[in-house]
Amino acid sequence: MKETIGPRALSMLLAALLVSGTMVPAVSAENESRGWLDTFDQWVEPRDMSKYTPVIETPQRVPITEEIARQHPGVIILDPKRESEFPVIDADIVPTSIVPTSPGKVSLTLQTESSDLGTRDLMPDVRMTQGTISWYWTQDTFVYHEITIHNYASSAASGMVILWSLKDGYGCGVPFSDLAAGADLTVTVPFEVLPQHSSIGIKPMAVEIRVDPTGLTSWMARMPIDAIEKYNNDAAHLFDPDGGENLETSDLYHFPFSEGYRVLLEAAQAADGTTEPYQSAYEIMQRVHDMMEYNNETMYVEYIFSDLYTLDHPSPINGKYQGVCDEYGTLYTAFTRALGIPTRFLSFTMELPSGNITGHAIAESWNGNAWIHSDPTWDVFDNPQVYRAAGNNHINITIYGDADDSYYTQDPNDPTGDGILRYEDFRTQILLGEVPRYN
Predict the structure, then answer these.
(1) C-alpha span between 288 and 328 (Å, rounded)
(2) Which residue, among 386, 362, 278, 392, has the nearest Cα to 52 in the 3D structure?
(3) Residues 93, 129: contact at Cβ < 8 Å?
(4) What residue segments make up the domains of the chain, in order of their start?
(5) Most buried by CB count within 10 Å: which residue of 147, 210, 255, 337?
(6) Are 339 and 231 in contact (CB under 8 A)?
């Protein structure tokens, strides 16, 4: 609980800010003030307001057909009965050989030497030995995979290398021909991510090698890392109306590539199987609400914690992530941005029925046409009037952006790079005021 200015003084302050303009510079720490944090009495408490969420439709992907496949050269439909036939590579891979090579790619080295030399003269034996696998897929683009194959047979072989998306039920194949006995060949497989026939989330991948003349499967396996499919943010798809500002990483939001894909993986698990940004954002909101535990210890009240810090410091009792509403909003923002949903982080003050002032942090996600309200602390989505329904007034909103842990240096207890930020570390603060749709 903070001892701060009263509601009437706050109203005068907000009126002055509205008159002076909408762009508010990062606040200073004169007289130990915490700026915006000192304009309210306490953070909002968690509530279950899910009954105020509209009915969310769950459109499904459209299964690909033979006719559609013919319209996309190289696309092959996977027989649903075969999805479970692909063995998972585990013991055959040297564990340390799965390494990042560039953003969104990993390199694999396989141990696949034929164990039955007597069969080499009887049937083709072409196998995958290495590969650079793209696991970060953007809808309506081609994702390129480099697959190295080796011919273990005693005669030349021809056939096809196929990269499958097991969940979506289709793959893309590239032919090879006259691969000499004992020879290697690296084939680039361009996988086409078809948004009408795929979904956002986790994509189990498999590689299959077929040999001529009968199309016999010589080798096949599920890859040891799953792909993650995200939305396309170019001008023809889910474009950020603020020119990419609401998709940026920062010291608060991370979706790493070369250092791993933990944030992306959790985001993909939350939105797995969704096909529209609105639906994806809703599922992420619910997932964050369920995985978080409200903890109003002083450290969470006074600071704002990054997504990675939150993921690294779960409760030792129940494993849930910790924080108050701004940590809920941070995790939601990181997850949605990671999957290509433009999202902006908002904090606001509002007047309680008692007359006291409370602070709250939420987010808004862009669905391609409008900003959609999302509050994982209260478990409510697309209902900005929920705060009025709860008896509150004067919902006064500020957009916070461009979090930089090295921006504010006057707090000796806040070293740079620890994932613990102050609100003063936001370089951009845009005061929206009492937005009509919330008030």
Answers:
(1) 7
(2) 386
(3) no
(4) 7-58+240-433, 66-230
(5) 337
(6) yes
User: Are 114 and 124 a contacting pair, CB within 8 Å?
Assistant: no
Q: What is the pLDDT of residues 302-319, one digit of tens each?
A: 999 999 999 999 999 999
CA distance 439 to 431: 15
pLDDT score at 82: 84
Query: β-strand 393-403 against 343-351: which pairing, if any?
Result: antiparallel
Give the E-state strand segments of 231-356 in sequence order.
292-294, 304-305, 321-323, 343-351
Task: Check whether 297 has a pLDDT greater than 70.
Answer: yes
DSSP at 215: T
Please, what is the end-to-end C-alpha distance for the chain in angstroms? 25
Locate all alpha helices (DSSP H) within 142-233, ordered by sequence. none
**Which of 2.60.40.10, 3.40.190.10, 1.10.3720.10, 3.20.20.140 would CATH assign to domain 66-230?**
2.60.40.10
Residue matched to tokens 């396996």:
221
Q: Which two tokens stand for residue 176?
A: 């090879």
Long-range contact pairs involving 301-304 (C-beta distance under 8 Å, separation at least 24): 301/43, 302/34, 302/37, 302/422, 303/414, 303/420, 303/421, 303/422, 304/252, 304/330, 304/403, 304/420, 304/421, 304/422, 304/423
Confidence bin at 10 (pLDDT 50/70/90):
very low
Q: Is the pLDDT of residue 288 over 80?
A: yes
Is the bond into 103 cis (omega within 30 degrees of 0)? no
pLDDT exceeds 60 at position 116: no
- Contact by Cβ (8 Å): 68, 197: yes
Residue 123 has pLDDT above 60, yes or no: yes
* Stretch 252-258: mean pLDDT: 83
Closest among 84, 129, 339, 126 to 228, alpha carbons compared = 339
Take residue 201 and report the two structure tokens written for it. Answer: 């989330």
Tokens representing 95 are 């564990």
Compare 406 and 88 and report the one with higher pLDDT.
406
Copy the structure tokens of residue 89: 């590579």
pLDDT at 84: 80
Checking if the pLDDT of 401 tops 90, the result is yes
Whole-model pTM above 0.90?
Answer: no
Distance CA 292, CA 181 (A): 56
Answer for the pair 184, 202: CB distance below 8 angstroms, yes or no. Answer: no
Q: Tell me, what's the pLDDT at 151?
A: 95
365 vs 367: CA distance, rounded Å: 6
